[in-house]
Amino acid sequence: MFNTIYNDVFPLIQKKYPSKVQIIFRQQIQPWHPSSTLVHEAGAAVLQTRPDKFWAFSSALFAHQTDFFDVNVVNETRNKTYARLAKIAAHVGVDEGEVLGLLEVPDKPAKDGSANVGNGVTDDVKLMVKANRLVGVHVTPTVLFNGIVENSISSSFTKDQWEEWLEKNIV
């Protein structure tokens, strides 16, 4: 669905509905894939540093998604995975060091002794999860229209199906 939205639906909306439709890509962590949290944290780091590059980063990440599937990260430390994600961000024009700085988890407790310190995007991830829970998002992808889950749209929707759906639903 991402590729269809990014490559086909965006241009269609810009042409036919420039002031009537806004697409918001809200990330949804899939907890049964442990690395899902890490890749979504990388998206949050890009949003913090270069929000104008988020869609390009997401496109690059989808192109390399299998690099972050369970079997390809199982023997890698969390910070090593973050380093690979920061390199993808760098390929789309985001400062690699800045992204990695937000993602890396320290190996020493905080000054107050706390050991579950998270990283520079932990609070963003908490907000993402909360926002998705509040609207009932459970699976990916989930499309919302005017804030309500739109179950008629599936991940296999083609450009033509999107165009037909938009024509019926955009006044």
Automatic annotation (TrEMBL):
SUPFAM superfamilies from the UniProt entry: Thioredoxin-like
Output the superkingdom of the source species.
Eukaryota
- UniProt cross-references to InterPro entries, sorted A to Z: Thioredoxin-like_sf
What's the protein called, per UniProt?
Answer: Thioredoxin-like fold domain-containing protein
Q: Source species, please?
A: Cryomyces antarcticus
**UniProt lineage:** Eukaryota, Fungi, Dikarya, Ascomycota, Pezizomycotina
